[in-house]
Amino acid sequence: MTTRRTRHHGAPPASTRQSTGAAALRAGIAVVGLLLFAAVPLLLHDWRPDPLPHTWQPGRWITLARRGYLHPDVLPNSLAVTAWLLWTVLATALAREIIAQLHRGAAAAHTSLLPGIIQRLASTWITSLSLLLTLIASRATTAPLPAAVATIAADTPAVPIPSAGGAQDPSAAAAAHRAGAYDIHRTERYDTLRTLAAQRYGDPDLWQTIRDASVGVLQPDGTPLPAGFVALTPGTILHIPTVPAADNPITLVADRQPLQPATGQEIQPVTADHEVLPGENLWSIVGSVYPTLPADDTPAAVTTVFTANHGATDPAGHRLTAPDVINPGMRLHLPPVHPPADPTVATGPRQPPVPTTPAPSSTTPAPSPARPAPAMPSAAASTPTVPPAISPDTAPSPGITSLRALPTAFASSASPAPRADAGQCAPTVSPGTTPPPTSPRPPASSPSPHQQTIDSLAWLAAGGLLATTIVGSWTARRRWRDNHTTPRHTLAPTPPDQAALHTALLDADNPDLLDRVDAALRHLAATHQHQQAGPAPQILLVHPDDTVEVYLHPHSSHTLPAPWEPGPDPQIWTLPADAPLPPPPPALPPPCPALVQLGTTFDGADVLADLEALGSLAIAGNPTDLHDAARAILATLITSPWADLTRIHTLGLDPAALTDPERVTPHITADALLSASHHDIDLLRHALDTAGYPTTLTARVHEPGEEFDPLIALAATPATTPAHDALQDLAALAADGQRGLGVLLPADADIPTRWTLRPAPSADGTDTWLLQPLGLSFALTAIPEDAHDTLAELWTDAAAPLPELPPPPVEPHPHAFTEPAWQVMVRLLGPVDAIAQDGTHADPATTRDRTHEVLAWLVTHRHATRTDLEAALWPRGATPKTIANALSRVRRLLTTLAGDDAEHWLPRFERGSLTLSPHVTSDLDLLHARIHHAETHRHHPEIAIPTLQGAVDLIRGIPAGYPWLDAQMGSLLTTTPINAVILLTEHHLTLGDTTAALTTTLRGLEILPAHTELFALRLRAHAANGDPDALKAEYRAYLRAEKAEPYWDGDTDRDLETLYRTLLRETTIQYGQTDHTTPTQKVEEPGHEPRARTGTR
Question: Is 18 part of any domain?
């Protein structure tokens, strides 16, 4: 028979006694050290009262030293002066720590003016002294204890530790939810009772209120807090009263109930105990074992059951610490519940509902916000009563959406640290965690095709930065392709799924966000130029009004220059929306290459994170969530203008999808990922250590010409046995971040990570995620698999070489071009408008731009439907009345231009396709017709030149930038006019009319200023004129235009360079002139060095 030792309830647990004794020992050592430190001036004064020399004769001293004479007082006086200097430095550090503790209850910010070891020693001394004061005060005030607390210490029986099955005595169930007006807090490193009291109440002397209210609270190891405890260890659970009233009665923890005083009838469960089955949650269990419980009282009953079973374990040892996370195998005790007599009385924290994404209403048009955000109602970011890093599931919906709204208790406890509680490291979120609805739902109807399109692109609502980087990089790829097109190239029609995705990306594109973030980060990084350890951002929140909040790395400096404003915590700073920023140094590189978007809060703020500064980020969700989030991060890094040289190692992602072979390396096994990451990061860190830079951010600022871009490892595979050890080593290699490695991996109980993203299921099934330890609540930025496939196709097609087709057959019977009959022409080759055949326009004051856009869509989609029109022009949905009004205005415009007969050119009662009359054409259709006629008459310049001249005359400027127009016809509207210009210029050069050739090419350069074929034709024209100086000037003009292209990568077109050199040599030889310029002078101009891509477009 096994005998178990029973410890008296009043005695503190061994862990608490050990931590208290260790804290007291450290405090005693600190006091002794301070006493010795205070005695140093007396000892020095008694030993060497005046160690400084009274005369200054360095020459005489050097002469005597050379002759071997050294005064016997020199060495002792030097040691005394050195000791005085060290004492002064340490005294300064102590004074800074004392001022910081008195001013804001936290350690002083790191400064480069004092040695780091001195600052750490001063911080340790002052912290230990504060703990000693707390210990002394506790001994002086613990007697007499309040009656209730004294009862706990003397009379309350021991609380048994829950068994493996999770059963425990209901009388000792205690512990975890609010009994009345108090909050639950799980301590972090550096928390003390005095700092918590200062943060919650503004008065550290009220620490006893927290201690007395927490006596008897059940801890994760199953033991209660003893009476008179003082020292805190990370993970200690406290009950903190909301109002520290002097007469606030203290209730035994075992007697605390989460319900209000019950006056209703007691409801008994059908069974006293219940073992959790797969797929169950507390809501479903309460609904089945309390069949007579009203639906409105279910949240209160769930709180009661959770309180009675807090700390229960499953067979794997995971403990019940949050009402939304229960594991199969837990055995729950089911107490009676007492519904309140008044159903309007709040009975406890309810399951936090998060509003669903509203579908387009059939009666109310959906407004188009100035900035995309998750389609969820915004909510006030009030400070929740439950610290989100401990129990985020019970925080008020929609959770914390601003760094300024973090609980004040978070001020000294948010420093990321490896998680110690295995139950919280990897919470098991079963598919059944979403509680059943309390009211019947209406029968679901099949969604419309437009609604299906909206649903398939809903992920873009949480990806403002992702959409912006994709649009910018994709546009640069397409621009490069368009700059190299000729009349022989053909453009294939854009597939509908790619066009829909591209339209949605353009609608979500927000270059102002990119500019704001880039300016804020560069201003922050500029502070590193004058110090070795400047501020390093980890998390950024960019609000819709352009206010920027930043959460700084705990090991960096926590001081920012104006116009940054300090927040509630030294690590939180705010850049006001209207704050102007000075221009950054011109050579400053992107400070945070690994900046990605994690999501968007429910009030529209973009949540950005520097993966390198985070170190390691774990995703605690199912494998699909992990893959979707990893795809979004990979896409951001590939398309980001800040991550040109950032290398990426992946595991578990499709290597054939959206990728960059130059920077992305896929791996098959976790060991291969670890080996490659270890090799690359060792090289980078060796370079850092050789140069003496503590972080890559500091190195990038001080060495802008060198590469210190980080390495990012994306492990999108479960942490199973073969990969577990390698992923654990990878997370350890990343450590606290800032040293060149950022890791994304699945959450696992045995893999400690600094940061975690975990799902927070809501009552209505809305996907909400929490970033721990900050507790930020937001919609996750993720790319589903089907959307990622479409995005990869769109990305590939933008840079794929265009196929070349032979010219059309020559017309056997030459004839002049006859323009097709039309009465109204919609002009697309410039600002969109409509004109009649006689050239008249509608009055701009009475014609909306939206009407011109609808007419442009109708003339380019002659067999499309109303649903297609709605999807293109109203991507967020529109009412039938809105669409009918838009079509009515189009009819009115047509009748204004062409008379009453035009009323029937757009059928009024058409239920199928919206077929526009052939009397309405577009300048793009006429341009195609003229180019085709000219190519079939290419051997008859007398016919081709007038035809092409009429085509060039249709060009009025850069086409309109409607998202649907750019997505479906963007390249067509730019390359088709260029083709007409090229064909006409070739005819002019054939006839020797170089002046006409140069004049014609200017029309094309107005659309694409760096088109290589147009510059090639201009070079040939100057060569035909025998003017080498004009030839040189023309090529230098091309170099300037090339460098002015968005996202120019520093390279030049080698074919055009070769043509330039050949023509220059031939012209020089033919006309007997000598070229005195060097090859470098031919290619480069002074002051036009290749520049890297910037963060703006």
Answer: yes
Q: Are 254 and 171 in contact (CB under 8 A)?
A: yes
Highest mean pLDDT among 273-287, 405-419, 621-635: 621-635
The answer to whether residue 1010 is domain-embedded is no
Nearest to 767 by CA among 191, 355, 195, 282: 355
**Are 101 and 152 within one domain?**
no
Helix (H) or strand (E) holding 539: strand 537-542
Q: Identify whether 786 is part of a domain.
A: yes
Q: How far apart are alpha carbons 379 and 601 in whole angstroms?
A: 10
Q: Taking Cα atoms as reference points, which of 900, 899, 893, 818 lies closest to residue 859?
A: 893
* Residue 488 near residue 787 (C-beta atoms within 8 A): no
Q: Is residue 234 domain-shared with residue 86, that is, in the same domain?
A: no
> Under a CB-based contact definition with an 8 Å cutoff, are residues 514 and 641 in contact?
yes
Nearest to 401 by CA among 389, 414, 383: 383
**Residue 352 placed within a domain:** no
CATH, residue 729:
3.40.50
**Confidence class of residue 351 from pLDDT cuts 50, 70 and 90?**
very low
Which pLDDT score is estimated for 381?
33
> Is the alpha carbon torsion for 729, 730, 734, 740 positive or negative?
positive
Q: Closest Cα partner for 368 from 501, 462, 516, 507?
A: 507
582 SS3 class: coil
Q: Say if residues 224 and 217 touch (Cβ distance below 8 Å).
A: yes
Question: Of 394, 698, 363, which Cα lies nearest the Cα of 533?
Answer: 698
Residues 85 and 217 grouped into a single domain? no
Instruction: Give strand pairing partners of 827.
Output: 833
**Model confidence at 937: pLDDT above 90:** yes
Cβ contacts of 14 within 8 Å, gap of 6 or more: none
Q: 598 and 706 share a domain?
A: yes
Question: Are 34 and 168 members of one domain?
Answer: no
Which residues make Cβ contacts (< 8 Å) with residue 284, sequence separation at least 6? 432, 435, 436
Specify the number of domains making up the chain: 3
Can you give the residue range of the structural domain that contains 161?
Answer: 142-255
d(CA 621, CA 626): 7
Block residue for tokens 């700084």: 552
Distance CA 934, CA 1001 (A): 17
Question: Based on the domain organization, do 637 and 712 belong to the same domain?
Answer: yes
DSSP for 895-923 reads: HHHH-GGGGGSS-SS-SSB----TTEEEH
- Do the beta carbons of residue 850 and residue 815 sit within 8 Å? no
CA 994 to the chain's CA centroid? 54
Please write the tens of the pLDDT for every residue from 270-329.
Answer: 888 888 887 677 877 887 788 788 766 777 788 888 878 877 888 877 778 777 678 888
- Name the pairing type of β-strands 572-575 and 548-552: antiparallel
Residue pLDDT, tens place only, 943-971: 999 999 999 999 998 888 888 888 888 88
Q: What is the residue-wise DSSP string for 87-104?
A: HHHHHHHHHHHHHHHHHH
Q: What does the pLDDT read at residue 816?
A: 93
**Do 131 and 190 lie in a common domain?**
no
CA angle 394, 390, 245 (to 5 degrees): 80
| Tens-place pLDDT, residues 461-483 | 777 888 888 888 888 888 888 89
Residue 523 sits in the same domain as residue 611: yes
Residue that terminates a domain, selected from 752, 771, 794: 794
Q: Among 234, 176, 237, which Cα is nearest to 420's?
A: 234
In this prediction the pTM is 0.59
Q: Classify 775 in phi/psi space as left (phi over 0), alpha (psi -120 to 50) or beta.
A: left
**Alpha helix ranges (H) inside 769-874:** 785-799, 849-860, 866-873
Q: Which pairing describes strands 711-715 and 741-746: parallel, antiparallel, or unpaired?
A: parallel
- Other CB atoms within 10 A of residue 377 CB: 12
Q: Give the burial class of 949: count Cβ atoms within 10 A of its Cβ; 0-12 exposed, 13-18 middle, 19 or more buried.
A: middle
Domain boundary among 89, 119, 138: 138
DSSP-based three-state secondary structure for 648? strand
